[in-house]
């Protein structure tokens, strides 16, 4: 069973009554709920817990980390970012949602600003499937339609995706690479754009399906971590002494 930790800064839901009405238990618990229904072993962690809830023990027992953040990126400790970064390189999967594109961990893994255009007027979005054979798109139709979402628009300052799964179109005319995959070290990363805190995006059944699929895709390969550094010879080497 895949072990998942859902991380959320958990600030909007506690400080804004309108957002609390959408996610009364917090975005992290809404996401954790449908991942549990999909048969996963799920825990949650939030910014204000000791070590942001991401202790060495928690991360060492996490196959896939799901990350949601927005207004408190700078409050995440660099020490914890480095800790998560090491685990991704070692093979832990990472699913970064919505405004997590500006999180310290995503920017560190991408090596760019990860900046973009945005507009929050609650416009319709269509998420078009660009790679229908990809496992993250399994069970999804030709597109997913959201009645209201925050617009994210190109240019998105990230490296070219290894795989582009979804392209989002917004009724204001903008488009965006809304579902992208990357590999860093031995870890797999899925960035998925929808999920503004003011809209009930994470109640949408097809959005839930994509996130479930993304977690399953990002699960680590079950094999030993590679050994690096000075290596013993595998065969007998004929050595010549230079005089």
Automatic annotation (TrEMBL):
<dbReference type="InterPro" id="IPR029010">
    <property type="entry name" value="ThuA-like"/>
</dbReference>
<dbReference type="InterPro" id="IPR009381">
    <property type="entry name" value="Trehalose_catabolism_ThuA_prok"/>
</dbReference>
<dbReference type="Pfam" id="PF06283">
    <property type="entry name" value="ThuA"/>
</dbReference>
<protein>
    <submittedName>
        <fullName>Trehalose utilization protein ThuA</fullName>
    </submittedName>
</protein>
<dbReference type="InterPro" id="IPR029062">
    <property type="entry name" value="Class_I_gatase-like"/>
</dbReference>
<feature type="domain" description="ThuA-like">
    <location>
        <begin position="3"/>
        <end position="218"/>
    </location>
</feature>
């Amino acid at each position: 069973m895949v072990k998942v930790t859902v991380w959320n800064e958990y600030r909007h839901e506690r400080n804004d009554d309108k957002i609390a009405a959408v996610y009364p238990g917090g975005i992290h618990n809404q996401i954790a709920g449908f991942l549990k229904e999909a048969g996963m072993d799920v825990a949650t962690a939030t910014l204000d817990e000791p070590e942001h809830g991401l202790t060495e023990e928690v991360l060492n027992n996490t196959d896939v980390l799901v990350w949601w953040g927005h207004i408190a990126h700078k409050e995440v400790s660099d020490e914890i970012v480095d800790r998560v970064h090491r685990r991704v390189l070692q093979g832990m999967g990472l699913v970064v949602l919505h405004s997590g594109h500006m999180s310290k961990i995503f920017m560190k893994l991408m090596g760019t600003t990860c900046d973009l255009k945005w507009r929050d007027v609650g416009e319709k979005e269509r998420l078009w499937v660009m790679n229908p054979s990809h496992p993250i798109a399994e069970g999804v139709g030709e597109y997913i339609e959201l009645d209201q979402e925050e617009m994210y628009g190109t240019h998105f300052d990230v490296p070219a995706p290894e795989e582009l799964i979804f392209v989002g179109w917004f009724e204001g005319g903008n488009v965006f690479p809304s579902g992208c995959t990357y590999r860093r070290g031995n870890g797999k990363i899925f960035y998925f754009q929808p999920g503004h805190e003011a809209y009930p995006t994470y109640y949408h059944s097809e959005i839930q399906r994509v996130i479930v699929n993304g977690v399953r895709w990002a699960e680590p390969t079950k094999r030993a971590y590679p050994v690096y550094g000075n290596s013993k010879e595998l065969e007998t080497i004929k050595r010549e002494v230079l005089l």
